[in-house]
Amino acid sequence: MINHKRTAAFVGLLYIIGTISGILSVMFTGSILESTDLFMTVSTNESHIILGVVFILIMGISLAFVPIIIYPIVKKTNQALALGYVVFRGALENFTYLAYAISLLVLVVFSKEFVRSVSLDNTIFQVMENIIVDSGEQIQAISTVVFSVGALMLYYLLYQSRLIPKWLSGWGFIAGIIYLATGVFGLFGPTFTILMMPLALQEMVMAVWLIIMGFSPAK
Question: Which Pfam families does the entry link to (predicted)?
Fold first, then answer.
């Protein structure tokens, strides 16, 4: 089996780009979205929201390429599961990213209208604010579930194929289960971000491994 070192390095780089973009999107939007006067805060920080949306899209595009690139390699282990990985991580996950990005842009639109109509009854704006925020949180929870299912498919394939060390793919699979549980709980209540850290750390370790070591030859 060919080592596919260049492919592995590119996949590792995409993981790093996607992760950094995701972190930057949170840095630009996180504190704004936690504001108690959301529409007013958004209206004075519109550029931050727009930048956050841009980084969300960069993250989505980067991570969407990963399953497309890996598919020809992992399909030799299980073609159905490899195709499922492409569907979940390449299509469904990016649909949730796009939906969340749109919700942020809608927030910008309503914040502008809020500023123009500040002298009017703000009840309707409060209702719209609640709807947008709640919808965004639900979209993020769904995205977490979709991401986790795709990750579990990938790490099972990597574990079976031994393209990376079993300790690394096993770490990803266990962390993926925790990540999935976090997303499911997030559909009904608050999300415990700390439970996402094991998988986030694993992906960065795997990214560096792929860049340096590449995929392992078949055993």
Answer: DUF4386
